Amino acid sequence: xxxxxxxxxxxxxxxxxxxxxxxxxxxxxxxxxxxxxxxxxxxxxxxxxxxxxxxxxxxxxxxxxxxxxxxxxxxxxxxxxxxxxxxxxxxxxxxxxxxxxxxxxxxxxxxxxxxxxxxxxxxxxxxxxxxxxxxxxxxxxxxxxxxxxxxxxxxxxxxxxxxxxxxxxxxxxxxxxxxxxxxxxxxxxxxxxxxxxxxxxxxxxxxxxxxxxxxxxxxxxxxxxxxxxxxxxxxxxxxxxxxxxxxxxxxxxxxxxxxxxxxxxxxxxxxxxxxxxxxxxxxxxxxxxxxxxxxxxxxxxxxxxxxxxxxxxxxxxxxxxxxxxxxxxxxxxxxxxxxxxxxx
Length: 344
Description:
The structure is a single chain. The chain contains 14 helices and eight strands. The protein is mainly alpha-helical. It has one domain. The strands form three sheets. Strands 1-2-8 form a three-stranded mixed beta sheet.
């Protein structure tokens, strides 16, 4: 009897490994990459004591320590060992991120991972591996996109380091990025990528305002620049999300559905170009932020629009709940969310 049970368990394990072979190999490769980063990262104290390290960048490291303390003490973010080390990217992207979407429908491709659930993006430490999977998705007919990550959260599985690339940004952007990623480590709901990213975006955006007010004052240049940049992002996001509705109407129209494939591609491309170029009429605080979008060679597909759904579509919902139910108190708001949802 025992042998039969053992054989059954063994067959289940073998079947699981065969069915999830690619997932297991991906997990192993990512684990190796992450361990390498953790091992090569240096303690902040060691970097601050290094006389060869630029003083301007040391100031940014001290700023990150202040941001983290503020996030824990004033916002209700969980205390952790994250951002106590520094990893030198040597000017290279740390992670390549792939996304894919149906060509005539705003339905993202989803990757399924045991225990972690569904994700609408997938990261690789090696560009060639990301490109290989993207080529396979393109062959299957998906819109595809390859991007890079300025930062990412391992949700407490590893000690996330400060990435050297972060230190190039102004104070407001650094605060927004750090608080965004720390929010993921505080609350991340399984199978809810859009909710998770919108929440982290909201806490990062608004938490940075509070930090800058605390650190520099309401009338400071740091605050003025940050608010100008955030307003630009909001304006552009609203424009993109509005344009997405136009595309949805196009995709769902009977006339479009009946068109030959090449004509569909042409009309889709023309409408996307029209939407992106129309953003030129927006009054920006710093238009240079969107220079890539206005460049002659810029091309976008459905993934471009879904990025704004993933990170910004639900901002008004969080804003209303935060202001009306919790009177703009982050500690109360995050305590409520942590009690309502279970985290990974």
